[in-house]
Amino acid sequence: MAYHKPFNYSFTSFFRHNVNGGILLIFVAILAILVANSPWSTYYTKLLSLPISLKFGDFNLLSQNGEPLSMLAFINDCLMAIFFFHVGLEIKREVLVGELSSLRKASLPIIAAIGGMITPVLVYLMINHVSPGSKGAAIPMATDIAFSLGALSLFGKRVPLGLKIFLTAFAVTDDIGGILVIAVFYATNIHVMYLLIAFALIVLLVVAGQLKIQQKSLYIIVGISVWYLFMQSGVHSTVAGVLVAFTIPAQPRLKIQKYIGRIRESILTFPITKQESIVLTNDQIHELKNIEGASNKVISPLQYMEDRLSGLVNYMILPLFAFANAGIVLGGDYVNIFGPATYAVALGLIIGKPLGLYSFSWISVKLNLVSLPDETDWKSMWGICCLGGIGFTVSLFIANLSFTPISLELLNQAKLGIVMGTIISGIIGCFFLNNALPKMQKSH
Q1: To the nearest 10°, the Cα dihedral for 309, 313, 314, 318?
Q2: Among 170, 14, 153, 26, which residue's Cα sits nearest to residue 437?
Q3: Predicted TM-score (pTM) of this structure
């Protein structure tokens, strides 16, 4: 029972950040669409095309194949690497102490997520199986945690904790699938030497973790080097973020019981002056530094980084990504806006995602492989599975990887399909959940 309180606190913090971030994403996505179809659209395009540099002498850190990154590439290749680093930290935490920490806990969300990844791809390919449109088959695979938890938060205390955790766990598993897809299917012109050096640095970080070296600066500096090498290697740089996250130490240097003992001892021996002054004595400063040092040691680098990055990711990086990538141009020929990619993505999210999640869950429960979360039934499960069709961040990311090098028209269609699928999935999911979840008792 010892770890339940920290985990519940961690999940509550995680839930709150994602709900607030999801609400912000909605407004930013709408703003991006409005700007892209306004008289300012030219400035919007020029802004995203601006070159970005960070030079140290002749070396430009923000470059790829010798060319500086554009603003759009900086957001998608650099800032999104931080997002995926944060995702990697969340995955590692879930595997160590969360809902993926044991086979019994992880089985249902993992099985559901597998169905939720396979079925949308099949639905997509049924509608759009001809190249180059078929290259976007992975777009409807992912569930957006922030958006889906934001929709779920509308029901407040009516939602049992087990249902929230199930949604989070299968969405995290989705992220793992999305990362694997990006690593395997979107690598181009591989430069092996860069990859070998990058993996040597990752091994160095793993060894540092085994030796209980916890200086965060080491992991940050080496992590940036790994990111740069991946960007030059042809494997998408966001994969580096996840791999580096897995090397971050999760064990604190000081156990909580020993920390509490030290704090109590410091309080009892804290030097008190006869007259209170705004200026501390050297002995008082020394004792306070000891307390601060002990406090830093009781928080693991993994928890420290995950907590510090939550605000940056949810309130800056993801909104910037949404603003840069959700700008769907609605003008022009009707056929150019709605095409096979639009319908394939939208139906993959609206139909494929909930069918895959629900059917794989139902079969595994009926075979007595797993059991439903506490206080849930099949009606509420269907509603949650419908919310699984809310795909935004990772879906937009994969759409860019799929179609930017091929066709801006297909990219525009895919973006429209993502927005349509996300909105409709959210409405359907909320409708079924409203009918399935217990009603709140009215206070008299």
Answers
A1: 180
A2: 153
A3: 0.78
Q: What is the pLDDT confidence band of residue 334, given thresholds at 50, 70 and 90?
A: very low
Q: Looking at the DSSP assignment, which residues form a beta bridge with residue 69? A: 52
Contact, 411 vs 155, CB < 8 A? no
CA–CA dist 51, 105 (Å, integer):
47
Quick: pLDDT tens for 266-325.
777 777 776 676 777 777 777 777 777 777 777 888 988 988 888 888 888 988 988 888
Q: For the chain, what is the HEC assignment? A: CCCHHHHHHHHHHHHHHHHHHHHHHHHHHHHHHHHHCCCCHHHHHHHHHCEECCEECCEECCEECCEEEEHHHHHHHHHHHHHHHHHHHHHHHHHHHCCCCCHHHHHHHHHHHHHHHHHHHHHHHHHCCCCCHHHHCCHHHCCCHHHHHHHHHHHHHHCCHHHHHHHHHHHHHHHHHHHHHHHHHCCCCCCHHHHHHHHHHHHHHHHHHHCCCCCHHHHHHHHHHHHHHHHHHCCCCHHHHHHHHHHCCCCCCCCHHHHHHHHHHHHHHCCCCCCCCCCCCHHHHHHHHHHHHHHHHHCCHHHHHHHHHHHHHHHHHHHHHHHHHCCCCCCCCHHHHCCHHHHHHHHHHHHHHHHHHHHHHHHHHHCCCCCCCCCCCHHHHHHHHHHCCCCCHHHHHHHHHHHCCCCHHHHHHHHHHHHHHHHHHHHHHHHHHHHHCCCCCCCC
Is residue 330 predicted with pLDDT exceeding 80? Answer: no
> What pairing do the DSSP bridges indicate for beta strands 63-64 and 67-70?
antiparallel
Q: What is the pLDDT of residues 133-153, one digit of tens each?
A: 888 899 999 888 777 877 887
Quick count: other Cβ atoms within 10 Å of Cβ 311? 12
Quote the distance between the C-alpha of residue 146 and its chain's center.
8
Angstrom distance (rounded) from CA 47 to CA 324: 9
Q: How many CA atoms lie less than 13 Å away from 82 in the CB half-sphere?
A: 18
Over the range 62-73, which residues count as b (16 or more CB within 10 Å of their CB) and which as e? bbbeeebbbbbb
Residues facing 63 on adjacent strands:
68
CA–chain centroid gap for 138, Å, is 17
Report the distance separating Cα 244 and Cα 222, nearest Å. 9
